[in-house]
Amino acid sequence: MAQDSGEDRLQPGDPGHPRARAGQGRGDDAIAFGEKLLTLLDAGSFTATYKYGVILALLDHCLEYADRSGAPPSSLTTRQLAQKTIELYWPQTLPFGLAEEGALLRQSSSGQAQIVSRIVHFRDAAAPDPLATLHRTRLASPKAFVRLVDFVEWKLIEMPLPRLQQLGRFYEPFIYQIGWDANITRSRAGGPDFDNRLLLLPGAGEHLVRLAGLIRPLVQREWAAMVARMNRGLVEDSQLEDFLFGARRAGAGRLAFPLRELQDNRCFYCGEVLKVTAAVDHFLPWARYADDGIENLVAAHAGCNGSKRDFLAAEEHVGRWAGRFAPESAESRQLAEIAELARWQRDPERTLSVARAVYLNLSPGVKLWAGIDLFEDADPRGLARALAG
Ligand SMILES: [Zn+2]
After folding, report:
1. What is the value of pTM for the model shown?
2. What pLDDT score does 4 carry?
3. Half-sphere exposure at residue 190, Cβ-oriented, CA atoms within 13 angstroms
4. Ligand 1 centroid vs 311 CA: distance in angstroms?
5. Smallest Cα–Cα separation from 48: which of 115, 122, 132?
6. CA separation for the pair 112, 104 (Å, rounded)
7. What separation in Å is there between the alpha carbon of 356 and the centre of ligand 1?
8. Which helix (H) or strand (E) holds 76?
9. In the chain, what are the helix, strand and coil shares in percent, each to the nearest 5?
């Protein structure tokens, strides 16, 4: 995933770093990129919610495959995009509302979106229990999962990918380039000569990563609004967004005890003893990137957790947290054990890449949460050291 190259020795704050050299004009470029993305979100030619899924999947991919300096990758495959799309839709294909009377939300204006139907079908056939995570279901039925990915990959190739950047009569790629158009057939896509890569256009990955904190909530809101329109009478807007994108906190609660043990029964943030119940907090805020991996979970006082909310934690905390990724450390071994016992998901490499993408692309002076009612300015160099690993 993260590959070594000569540029790794340069930190994002250094004047010689490629992103510093790109330098001036980047702000204008980012604004132009953001405006195009807004236009694309507004364009109403889609009958299903796929375009939102693709944008969020691209965003997540750029965070997950960032290199050591936090720079995003330059391409991805439709296979990778399909897996990410399934992750995004997974919680949304549970019944909305009270478990027994709950209904499957429609995600297309004509019938059900095919990707949604196939995910539901896979869950019904393969999940050990109705609320099983994707991770557990995939482990339970690896072959059925491969078939699901095959199907979703083809749907993405056929439908949203060649059409996403088509605005009316104008086709103006600004996010990615692909080697096929809307006339693609399944046999050609499955053939040996098919190039399944999306090549990110210059600057697109950087803009996605730097603007992630703005783009994600916007896309989620539009996605929720479209689902609300397609399911009139069934849903109340206020609960819908949380259902579609919210953290499934109930599940993480059972990790409070082993995480407390790991932290010597101290709050991850203030270091004081945890006397009563502890909250399980997502170190990288869920609103920034939905990561339920064990490395991203810390036990904390309810008060510390409530004060941190969706803020990014300050450098001191980042440095301590980064210790979890040191190979062969007692901490990383214990986390692996906790995940194994609880059958909990973990992908430490991915979690660390996302942290680097998020933190190493912050502008100096962004406020980071240090403690209750306490903020400090982001220092890119200090953060780069904390996440050097
Ligand atoms: Zn605390």
Report:
1. 0.86
2. 43
3. 8
4. 15
5. 115
6. 9
7. 24
8. strand 75-77
9. 50, 10, 40
CA of 353 to the centre of ligand 1 (A): 26
> Burial of 101 by CB count in 10 Å (0-12 exposed, 13-18 middle, 19+ buried)?
exposed
CA of 274 to the centre of ligand 1 (A): 8
> At residue 23, what are phi and psi to the nearest 5 degrees?
45, -120
Cα distances (Å, whole numbers) of residue 285 to 1, 188, 357, 374: 22, 41, 14, 17
Q: Which segment of 91-95, 219-223, 234-238, 337-341 scores lowest on mean pLDDT? A: 234-238
Alpha-carbon dihedral angle through residues 206, 207, 210, 214, given to the nearest 10 degrees: -150
Query: Ligand 1 centre from 203 Cα, in Å?
Result: 40
Mutual angle of helices 114-126 and 142-158, in 10-degree steps: 180
Q: How far is the CA of 278 from the centre of ligand 1 (A)?
A: 9
Average pLDDT over residues 332-337: 96
pLDDT digits (tens, 9 = 90+) for 358-382: 999 998 889 999 999 999 999 999 9
How many angstroms separate the alpha carbon of residue 50 from the centre of ligand 1?
Answer: 41
Q: Which two tokens mark 146?
A: 């491969």
The CA 253 to ligand 1 mean position distance, Å, reads 17
Q: Which residues surround ligand 1, an ion (CB under 5 A)?
A: 267, 269-270, 301, 304
Decide: helix, strand or coil at residue 337.
helix
Distance 273 CA to ligand 1 centre (A): 8
Contact 96, 102 (CB under 8 A): yes
CA of 279 relative to ligand 1 center, distance in Å = 10
Nearest of 359, 362, 346 to residue 296 by alpha carbon = 346
Q: Which residues contact 198 (CB under 8 A, 6 or more apart)?
A: 58, 75, 76, 77, 78, 81, 161, 176, 177, 178
CA of 322 relative to ligand 1 center, distance in Å: 18
287-303 residues labelled b (16+ CB within 10 A) or e (exposed): bbbbbbbbbbbbbbbee
Give 267 Cα–ligand 1 centroid separation in angstroms. 5
Measure the CA–CA gap between 138 and 142, rounded to whole angstroms: 5
